[in-house]
Design brief:
The structure holds 2 protein chains of 2 kinds. Chain A starts with a strand and ends with a strand. By secondary structure, chain A is mostly beta strands. In chain A, strands 2, 4, 5, 6, 9, 10 and 11 form a 7-stranded mixed β-sheet that branches. A 4-stranded antiparallel β-sheet of chain A has the order 1-3-8-7, with no helix packed on it. Chain A has strands at residues 2-5, 8-10, 17-23, 36-41, 48-52, 56-57, 65-70, 73-78, 87-93, 101-102, 106-109. Chain B is mostly beta strands. In chain B, the strands form 2 sheets. In chain B, strands 2, 4, 5, 6, 9, 10 and 11 form a 7-stranded mixed β-sheet that branches. In chain B, strands 1-3-8-7 form a 4-stranded antiparallel β-sheet, with no helix packed on it. Helices cover 0% and strands 50% of the residues of chain B. In chain B, strand 4 and strand 5 form a beta hairpin. Chain B starts with a strand and ends with a strand. Classes of the chains: A mainly beta, B mainly beta. Chains A and B meet through strand 4, strand 5 and strand 10 of A and strand 5 and strand 10 of B.
């Protein structure tokens, strides 16, 4: 089970934002990688990948987005929120030994 | 350019079988580590993983749906087909297909998604 907090996050443009994702089981594989992704679903759009394997930024993702954490505790940080960042943010676990699951989602509003 | 597109019926009656097709281009499902999966989203709710099929024909299913769902690939057509039997109103959702470009050390995340196919289960 993945638990995100907060579920709603009002933000001011230019200010930082942080979302937490906690897993009921460790997402650290024997190979040393954490299989935790972050996705954002902007209004009316399909989800899009932001961060994979805990901290690797996907192609084309602005460097104001960063992922950190290991094991069961992970964080997505936006250094300076922009208006285009509004949407619902999901964490997702991708460890092969566990069913793929998503967090409940965190709604980011300006 | 990598694209994925879902197709299938928009309206299905309860107890019927739903068949959705994901047609993709720009990559091969024969590639080592590549997978294509289905994720659904009921109206106003969170994302839910349904199933995934890997380049080597391994398959994984959401345990809560496993008894009703089958995923298969047709590499000659660059398609992945999802079949869900005995559908119910709770299966009403937007169904997305997405791909990963690698596995293990080369895992890429679900880096490309389709636009989604809206499916309503109603009599």
């Amino acid at each position: 089970v993945l638990t995100q907090s907060p579920l709603s996050l009002p933000v001011t443009p230019g200010e930082p934002a942080s979302i937490s994702c906690r897993s009921s089981e460790s997402l650290l594989d024997r190979n040393g990688f954490n299989y935790l992704d972050w996705y954002v679903q902007k209004p009316g759009q399909s989800p899009q990948l932001l961060i994979y394997m805990g901290s690797s930024r996907a192609s084309g993702v602005p460097d104001r987005f960063s992922g950190s954490g290991s094991g069961t505790d992970f964080t997505l940080k936006i250094s300076r929120v922009e208006a285009e960042d509004i949407g619902i943010y999901y964490c997702m676990q991708a460890l092969q030994s566990l069913p793929i699951t998503f967090g409940q989602g965190t709604r980011l509003d300006i | 350019q990598i694209t994925l597109k879902e197709s299938g019926p928009t309206l299905v009656k309860p107890t019927q079988t739903l068949t959705l097709t994901c047609t993709f281009s720009g990559f091969s499902l024969n590639g080592n580590g590549v997978s294509v999966g289905w994720i659904r989203q009921p109206p106003g709710k969170a994302l839910e993983w349904v199933a995934v099929i890997y380049w080597n024909d391994d398959k994984r299913y959401n345990p809560s749906l496993k008894s009703r769902v089958t995923i298969a690939k047709d590499t000659s057509k660059d398609q992945v087909v999802l079949t869900m039997t005995n559908v119910d109103r709770v299966d009403t959702a937007t169904y997305y297909c997405a791909r990963t470009g690698g596995a293990g050390y080369y895992y890429t995340g679900w880096d490309y998604w389709g636009q989604g196919a809206q499916v309503t289960v109603s009599s």
